[in-house]
Hints:
With 125 residues, this protein is mainly alpha-helical. The protein is built from 5 helices and no strands. Helix 3 crosses helix 5.
Amino acid sequence: MKTRKLTKYLLASTAVVWIVWDIFVAIEPTPGDTESEVIRDYAWNHPFVPLGFGVLMGHFLWTRAGGRYFKRSPWLLVPIGLGALALDASGVIGSIQPLIPFGAGMLLGHTLWTQSTPDKHKEAT
């Protein structure tokens, strides 16, 4: 089996598990336990969460035409992430609008961990 096909199966099966779990906790009477509510609460109280999601979205979705897969070393994200985590843990940042670190994360993901635009003739599925 090709690794691309295996990766697609792993992603699909993981998504199914998350969806089933979210349905279960949405039906269950405990308030505030769905994935959306937990992520929202963490995002407002811990800015490194939306920063991390932003880095992933910048990496996954914001590609460069004709560029190399890694414009710069993605290892540069490690000290940035550790610094954001340290600032978050120290309480210096506090509770800020989650879109700010998310937007910064998208720029970091695109700049430091970019992918080249997919080949138009390559199978997209």
